[in-house]
Amino acid sequence: MAVQLNYLAKRGWKPKGDDWLITLIKVEFSEDALKEAKYSHIGSKKGKSLKKLFEDAAASVAAESSTGTWTKVYDGKDSGIPLAAKKKAIAFDLDYKRQMFKVAYPIDLFELDNMSGLLAGIVGNIAGMAMVSAMRVYDIKFPRKMLKAYPGPRFGVSGVRKLLKKPKGCLVCTVPKPKIGRTDAEQSRLAKVLFTSGKGTYDGIKDDENLTNLYFNKFDKRCKMVMNELKKAEKKTGKKKFFLCNTTHSNVGKMLDRAKTIKKNGGIFMMMDVITTGFAATDYMRRNNPGLAIHAHRAMHGFMTRDNSPGVHGDGKLYGFSISMIAIAKIYRLLGVDSIHGGSPLAKMEDYGEAKYIQQALQKKHLKPHKKIPTLGQDWHHIKPVWMTASGGLHPGDFETVLNELGEDIILQCGGGLLGHPHGPEGGVIAIEEARDAYEKNIPLRKFVKDNPESELAVAVKLWGYGPRIVY
Ligand code: CAP
Ligand code: MG
């Protein structure tokens, strides 16, 4: 672990100016590393050597993720060492107690508009380092020059509001359940029910993340048929609607063709699974799709972001390797999606109490670090705010809490929470309309239910309650 250059900042050092990218990391040491440093466990009293081990780890992370490697290499003529020394990353702000530190990367290490290249550096190899047994990347803070290299979201919150002629309020949306089962024609009939039941105010229908192009539910046919019902419903209700039509494919060319099909059918939104299709695909689709807003589903993120160890928020031990959803959300805002799943305080998915901060990371212009969750903040400059999608186990009884927590610039998605209504999809639509209306009129949900015991909302609440609840 003798890295060649000094990758460790002097105590108190801070990067000057804005030409640095910063990461925030916590590490645990492998048994082998501890043994080598003559420690059997982290709580050992022989603090000095543990301190050295931590410093080595911070320096090694900075080296491996920027210009260095594990040993001294040739440093003579043409070796590149002088420039490597000048452009090396620097580990700073070492928190010995929590084993956390920051790494500052000079901007010259990166091709500014290349997210894939950037990530190959800053988080490329470090999670594989044998000396560490656990690591979490809490946050990434991008410098202004890097933000300038990306167009950011084409529409963002305000642009989508304009497209939908909906200046305020949350958007409600439903993903058909079963996840897969309906034919294209059946899905279009569900769209009609969603868009025309109740007062006709229901906003959106979304494909599920694993619904692509199947023999009984063809992408082209689904797109055409759902858009056809959507247009008819718009005429009938006088309200704009949207279809988050899933273009996901591992062949980006096919994804682009699907986006063109959406455009041809008069759609305004495409959907893609941004983790399974990747950073490059997201960047490509942002820059090349035919003028659609992009809805980003984060399917598979749990294998990257999930860490149920006590140290997930800094104090206590970490057990695994992960990168926070906060960092992932920032990456995709920069890559230019217009809405993204960010979790929900009452969701069926684990969120570590981070949903609100994720919403802020997606929407604030000047994001401050969180008081408790280890974070770095971010100035977003020209990069627009994007929609947070709250989803996963949500139902009408959750509306008040979710809206109070996350604000109204959210797509509130209820799949099971609409289609599981005892009175069927129509009942589900009305229950959600009632929950949203009550919220917008400042009527507490419990009061509405008490005053309207026969309402569809009361029926939904009788079944699912008000949350929070772990659904599975
Ligand atoms: C929600 C959902 C979403 C999850 C993903 C599903 O359905 O469509 O994929 O919300 O989680 O298939 O589970 P329900 P997240 O409304 O029936 O739960 O939003 O946290 O990324
Ligand atoms: Mg889904």
List keywords for this structure.
single chain, alpha/beta, 472 residues, five-stranded mixed beta sheet, 19 helices, 38% helix
Question: What does this entry look like structurally?
Answer:
Helix content is 38%, strand content 15%. The longest helix is centred in the middle third of the chain and has 19 residues, at 219-237. The strands form three sheets. Strands 5-6-7-8-9-11-14-15 form an eight-stranded parallel β-barrel, surrounded by eight helices. Strands 2-3-1-4-10 form a five-stranded mixed β-sheet. It has a two-stranded antiparallel sheet with strand order 12-13. Helix 17 (424-440) crosses helix 19 (456-464). The model has no long low-confidence stretch (mean pLDDT 95). It is elongated and about 75 Å long. Strand 7 (242-246), helix 9 and strand 8 (269-273) form a beta-alpha-beta unit. With 472 residues, it is of the alpha/beta class. It has helices at residues 31-36, 47-64, 81-87, 115-122, 144-148, 156-164, 184-196, 219-237, 252-264, 274-277, 279-288, 302-305, 325-335, 355-363, 399-406, 416-419, 424-440, 445-451, 456-464; strands at residues 20-29, 90-95, 100-106, 132-141, 171-174, 204-206, 242-246, 269-273, 293-297, 321-323, 339-341, 366-367, 378-379, 387-390, 410-413. It has 19 helices and 15 strands. Magnesium ion is lined by residues 175, 208-209. 2-carboxyarabinitol-1,5-diphosphate binds next to helix 16.
